[in-house]
Structure formats: structure tokens, C-alpha cells
Specification:
The complex is a heterodimer of chains A (219) and B (229). By secondary structure, chain A is mainly alpha-helical. Chain A is 78% helix and 0% strand. Classes of the chains: A mainly alpha (219), B mainly alpha (229).
């Protein structure tokens, strides 16, 4: 219960302060407020994928179906946040650079993640049998995760980027964010992560209860 | 199939020989892939041959054709095993590792056949000028190894699915995106007039090599989870 209260306070703070305080990036102006929402969403999308992959590895190691439930719930949440990140990024791109999609490396990566999530669910729906579905989905999740570093680290070297990364990290690599921006951004990161984990724990609990209900009805 | 005491290479060779012999008798997968490839090249060159496309577009279309031809035929080796029920016997008798490597080499050979047939055709029919032929061949070679590496495991996964449809393409495409970006970028560099294409394409070559190594290693490690019931 306490976590729900903390989440409420943090998220409320973020949402209110994001609109009251001056816009974080002067050049882009009001649209840069999306930074407080878009970046945490993208972060959570990746976190969801990592949690799903770790649960998949655990399933292959231990064979317990609760691990498969964890993988599925994490993937579902990660997918939602990935969709949000893609859409918010696309809106920002339209407002700032007047085009919804540009094949900027970061845009490509988030779309790539969206495609992997989509493929994961397509695979799950095409398989019958709990163990078979869990096993094959786990293998795909791990295999897909292995190709992610290529897109995240290698492709940006090949293609120039539109992302305004220079506004936050200057040429020396030092982290330079103004006080007010940091005051809202870091709580936003924490708030979105907390939101993910609250929903994740709820989802896993529901799945476990459902499974228990099914097992009991079969006895 | 060799007995338990025979070498790993002999087992891989036996798996490969069986697949090749089976393919030679029916010629189904190779036929599907080649037919798809030739048809697409013909259609593309008919519609776009007269346009003076930029080199990136020429490279992209070639790799799109290779990708979709691969999608139309590479899953065959596993699907055929499942449908003719020989997979059960194979699972009982053989180790997963030689099965995977044998099927991987088989897929590489099928792709090599595809590329050997459609690439000259594509070059001739679209009047493509390949400045760096050595690099061009190297990128094709690395690309098909990476392509086979990624798709062999996925083919094994979907062979167990009940409703397959476009599942193979849906599952493969996200994973192949880095490979396609590297291969298309590298190929585009060999088509341009720039003399120093080996240096220009060095990052793409590194990407292709590392991608191939990573997916094949991951495939070897993960295959037994897909294979064993």
C-alpha cells in the first residue's frame, strides 16, 4: 500500500511540475516537455524486455510455469510502454522536425523493440500447450535479446542522429542538466519504473492465482 | 546416421547428406526459393530497370529479394521433419548439436545457391555497376551466413507451431534488421564510384562478422531447448 502512495505522490509531482516549470530546452521550446515522459517510457520498455528475458532464462533453467507468467506479464507491460514511447517520440518529431518518422537510429531501435515484442506475442498465440509455449517463447525472447546490442550500439555509428542528445550530455561527456530539469526528470524515471513494477507484481500475482485456480479445479 | 562413437563431424556430415539427398529428390525448397528469387528479380528489373536508381536503393532491393526468398523456403528443412514425423526418430537417435549444425550448413548452401543464381541475374537485368567486386562477394557471403544463422533457430521454433502462416517472416524480421542494415549499407558502398570502399565498409564488415558469430553461437546454445521435448 505504501508503494502505491509513493507512486501517486511521485507521478503527481512529475506531471504537475512538468507543466509548471520552464521548458527544459529553450531552443525547442514547449515541446521539449515531452522529454520528461518519453525518455522514462523508452527506459521502461527496455527494462520490461530485460525482465522478460531474465524470467525466460529462469524458465529454461528451472521449468516452473510461474517464470513463464513473469516473462509474459513483463513483455505485455514492456510492449505498452514501448508503444507509448514510439508514439510520444513520433509526436515530438512531428512538432520539432515536421515529420512523424525519420529512421533516426533511436527511432529505429524503438521500432525494432516494438517489432520484437509483436513477434513474441505472435509466437505465443501460435503455440498450444503451456510447456511448449513457455519453452519456445523463452528461447525466442533470449535469442531476440542477443540481437539488441547490435542495433543499439552499432547502428548509431553508421547513421547520423537527429536526437538532441547534446542538450543533456555535453562534448566532454559530462552530465549537465539544469537543477529544475533534474528535479523533474529523475523522479519521472523512478515514477515510471515504479509504475512498471507495481503493475508487473500485480500481473504476476493474478497469473499465479489463475493457475492455482485451474490446478485446483482439475484435482 | 553414425553411431554414438562416431565423431561430431561425421554426424554433422550425415545430417547434411540426408537433407541434401532429400532435397535432391523432391527439389521443393530449392525450387520455391529459386522461383521466388527469379520471379522477383524479373519483376523488379522490368519495372525499375530503366530508372537510374541511387546505389542505396539498388542494394536494398537486392537484399529485400534475398530476404523474402529466404523466408519462402528456409523453414522447409524443419517443417518437413515435423510433417513427415521423422523429427521424432531424429530426436530419439541424434544429439541436438549435430542436427543444428547440419541444418545450418544446409541452409547456408541453399542461400548460396539462391545468391549465385539471382545476383548475376540482378546485375545484368538492372545494369548495376559493381565497382568493388571482391567486397561485394564478401558482403554477400557474410550476409548469407548471418541470415542462415538467425533463421535456422527460428525455423526450428516455428516448426512446432500449429498455425504457421507468416510466422516465420514475422519472427525473423526484427532479428535480421541489424544484418540487413549492415549488408545493404556495405553493398551500397561497393556500388558507388568511391575508390576506398574497403575502408568505408569496414564497420559494416565488422557488424556482419560479429552478427554471424553471435547468432550462430546463440543458436547452438539455445537449440537443444527447442529440440528436446
Amino acid at each position: 500500500m505504501i508503494w502505491n502512495v509513493i507512486l501517486f505522490v511521485l507521478m503527481g509531482w512529475v506531471i504537475v511540475m512538468a507543466f509548471i516549470t520552464p521548458a527544459p530546452q529553450q531552443v525547442i521550446g514547449e515541446a521539449s516537455r515531452i522529454f520528461y515522459f518519453h525518455v522514462p517510457q523508452a527506459w521502461v520498455a527496455v527494462v520490461g524486455f530485460v525482465v522478460s528475458m531474465v524470467a525466460s532464462i529462469n524458465y529454461l533453467r528451472r521449468g516452473r510455469l510461474t517464470d513463464d507468467d513473469r516473462a509474459r506479464v513483463a513483455a505485455e507491460l514492456g510492449f505498452v510502454f514501448c508503444l507509448l514511447a514510439t508514439v510520444s517520440g513520433s509526436i515530438f518529431a512531428k512538432v520539432t522536425w515536421n515529420s512523424y518518422w525519420n529512421w533516426d537510429p533511436r527511432e529505429t531501435s524503438i521500432l525494432f523493440l516494438l517489432l520484437i515484442y509483436g513477434a513474441y506475442f505472435a509466437l505465443r498465440s501460435a503455440l498450444t500447450g503451456d510447456e511448449k509455449r513457455a519453452r519456445l517463447a523463452a528461447v525466442y525472447s533470449i535469442f531476440a535479446f542477443i540481437t539488441v546490442p547490435f542495433l543499439v550500439f552499432v547502428v548509431p555509428r553508421v547513421l547520423p542522429s537527429l536526437h538532441p542528445s547534446d542538450s543533456v550530455v555535453d562534448s566532454a561527456g559530462q552530465f549537465s542538466m539544469s537543477g529544475t530539469t533534474a528535479m523533474i526528470f529523475f523522479p519521472a524515471l523512478v515514477a515510471f519504473s515504479l509504475l512498471f513494477f507495481r503493475l508487473y507484481i500485480l500481473g504476476v500475482r493474478i497469473s499465479i492465482l489463475k493457475r492455482r485456480r485451474i490446478e485446483e479445479s482439475q484435482l | 546416421m553414425p553411431g554414438k562413437s562416431s565423431s561430431w563431424a561425421a554426424k554433422v556430415g550425415a545430417m547434411l547428406a540426408k537433407d541434401i539427398r532429400q532435397e535432391y529428390r523432391t527439389r521443393y525448397a530449392a525450387g520455391a526459393i529459386l522461383l521466388f528469387g527469379v520471379t522477383t528479380v524479373t519483376v523488379v528489373s522490368f519495372t525499375m530497370g530503366r530508372l537510374d536508381l541511387p546505389v542505396e536503393a539498388q542494394a536494398a532491393v537486392l537484399w529485400i529479394i534475398i530476404f523474402f526468398a529466404a523466408m519462402s523456403g528456409l523453414a522447409q528443412s524443419f517443417i518437413r521433419e515435423e510433417e513427415t514425423k521423422t523429427a521424432v526418430a531424429l530426436r530419439l537417435y541424434a544429439d541436438p548439436n549435430p542436427v543444428y549444425v547440419g541444418k545450418l550448413i544446409y541452409n547456408i548452401l541453399i542461400l548460396a545457391l539462391l545468391v549465385a543464381v539471382i545476383t548475376p541475374l540482378y546485375i545484368i537485368m538492372t545494369d548495376m555497376i559493381v565497382s568493388g567486386i571482391g567486397l561485394f562477394c564478401l558482403i554477400l557471403f557474410l550476409g548469407i551466413i548471418g541470415l542462415a544463422g538467425a533463421t535456422t533457430l527460428i525455423a526450428a521454433i516455428i516448426s512446432k507451431a500449429n498455425i504457421r502462416g507468416a510466422l516465420f517472416a514475422v519472427l525473423s524480421f526484427p532479428l535480421l534488421l541489424p544484418l540487413l542494415i549492415g549488408a545493404i549499407g556495405g553493398t551500397a558502398k561497393t556500388l558507388s564510384e568511391n575508390e576506398d570502399y574497403w575502408a568505408a565498409a569496414s564497420s559494416e564488415i565488422q557488424l556482419l562478422i560479429s552478427y554471424a558469430v553471435v547468432v550462430i553461437t546463440a543458436g547452438i546454445l539455445l537449440f537443444e531447448f527447442v529440440w528436446e521435448e
